[in-house]
Each structure stands twice: as structure tokens, then as C-alpha cells.
Design brief:
The protein is 61% helix and 0% strand. It is built from four helices and no strands. It is mainly α.
């Protein structure tokens, strides 16, 4: 059972939606992701080379560089 779970996780890593979620998480904007906007932005960046990065940038551009996940931490 555990092997099947591990293989399933590996197969999902290449999904575009998961790539977008990971990029947004790395930049501190994980709370912005939702599937309605994802589908809308996916249609807009159809010709982009790196679609995951382009969609993540569309999320940040659309919502503006508002408060991110890391703003509560003192560095």
C-alpha cells in the first residue's frame, strides 16, 4: 500500500496545477491559489514556454504583491 502511495505522489508531481502551487508556495503566496483562477490563467498562458511559472506570475500580478506568507516573520 505504501509503494502505491509513493508512486502516486511521484506521478502527480508533474501536474501543472501542482507545479503552480509549489512555485507560489516557494514565493510565499500559497494562499492565492484557487482552481477557478488557475483555469482562467492557464488559457491565457497557452503559448508560454514554462507554463507553471507563467501562471504563478499571473496569480501574483493579478492579486498584486500583497501580504505574503513570510511577512509575519522577522528576518
Amino acid at each position: 500500500m505504501q509503494t502505491r502511495t509513493n508512486l502516486n505522489d511521484k506521478n502527480n508531481a508533474f501536474k501543472l496545477s501542482i507545479q503552480v502551487k509549489n512555485i507560489l508556495h516557494e514565493k510565499g503566496y500559497s494562499f492565492l491559489f484557487n482552481f477557478n483562477d488557475y483555469k482562467f490563467f492557464k488559457k491565457q498562458v497557452n503559448q508560454a514556454f514554462n507554463k507553471g511559472l507563467a501562471i504563478a506570475e499571473k496569480f501574483i500580478e493579478y492579486y498584486g504583491e500583497t501580504q505574503n506568507d513570510y511577512s509575519d516573520y522577522v528576518f
